[in-house]
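INTERNAL AUDIT FORM
Audit reference: QA-55
Scope: verify that the stored structure record matches its stored sequence.
Auditor: D.O.
Record contents follow.
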Amino acid sequence: MSRGIYIVANDRVYDNAIALLNSIRSYDPEVPVFLIPFNEEYQKVADTINKLHNVQLFPNLEFIDQFTKKIGEIFDRDFLALPNKMRKLAVWFGPLDEFLYIDTDIIVFNKISDVLNKLSEVGFICCDYHHANEGLRNIFSPYVKEHNIFTETELQDVFNSGLWASKKGAITEQQMDEILRECATHREYFDFTQGVTDQPILNYMVLKLIPKRYNLVKTPEGEPGSWAGSKHFQEKDHVLYDQDKRLIYLHWAGTPLKPGGAYWDLWEHYRYLHEGRPAWQRKLLRLFPFVATRT
């Protein structure tokens, strides 16, 4: 049985992809990682993360192209803000039997592939507090609750689409095709007001098609959060803690990942873990040391 990680990236998120992979490899040197290109501009990032961390291209790029074309045929042009974000759904038809999907605006603080161990009991895993903090926002419109599209219990399983796990066979190509067409005819189900793309569709699909789901934060002892917008996390040895609990990962969802932003110094540590800062940045720090962030 093959297990591993998928990411979606292109050259625009070059630095983010390196930071993510540096963090993954800090705790898990051997786990297979596959890159699904976001678009045709991916050669630079693909070459770099392959050399650094043996990240492989998704082996069937023709399938990715066909899948992208199908998304364009199913959904009206103004339905999805960034249709190529839907490429992450191809993970159910890739080479891995059990897989973890991770967005590139994330860094991890442990052997993240251990999340896959729970797949022996369930078909889908997430690890976030979207259900508690955001409710249905950026996923479903009030229509879904008002018309009982899902039960109250099912709606407690909504999740952020940045980090999650599943396994091949949990969703078939025919099921996915049918559910995507169903979504395309029910725009009223979804909350796209903040410009999200894949998250509402992915949630609908998982709630409809995968009955056994598990959120790792829903344990009696609880788990720490993961949102970079939370300001109370404490750093120790380039790892974040929520009081005495080590975070599993940190996600900049909806939070600017930029100089001066939340946990920027920590992100920089992982980005430049195996190389020096670029020359322009070294010069800036010499001229303006007061804006320096620690490495």
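Auditor finding: record pair retrieved intact. The first strand starts at residue 3 and ends at 9.
Action required: none
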